């Protein structure tokens, strides 16, 4: 009977480890940034693809 209790305890511990959101890989962690835009600029950014578009523009831009 002791082995059943041990097996139950092992399964319970495994379930507890899996509960919740998994940790984010630091390489993919994102940060919020506030940018001041006019109403027209904000709408244009939204139409161009929003934050995904901004991220793509930053990735393809060359540093001076």
Mind explaining what this structure looks like?
By secondary structure, this protein is mainly alpha-helical. The protein contains three helices and no strands. The protein is elongated.
Topology:
Layout: H1 2-18, H2 39-48, H3 50-60
Helix pairs in contact: 2-3
Q: Which percent band covers the strand fraction? A: under 5%
Mean pLDDT: 88
Described by strand count, sense and barrel closure, the largest sheet is: none
Distinct helical segment count: 3
Looking at the chains present, what oligomeric state does this protein adopt? single chain
Q: What's the helical proportion of residues?
A: 55-70%
DSSP strand tally: 0
Q: Note poorly predicted spans.
A: none
Protein structure class: mainly alpha
Order of helices and strands: HHH
Radius of gyration (CA) equals 23 Å
Shape: elongated
């Amino acid at each position: 009977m002791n082995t059943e209790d041990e097996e139950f305890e092992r399964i319970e511990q495994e379930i507890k480890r899996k509960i919740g959101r998994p940790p984010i890989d630091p390489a993919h962690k994102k940060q919020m940034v506030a940018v001041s835009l006019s109403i027209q600029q904000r709408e244009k950014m939204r139409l161009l693809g929003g934050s995904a578009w901004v991220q793509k523009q930053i990735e393809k831009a060359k540093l001076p």
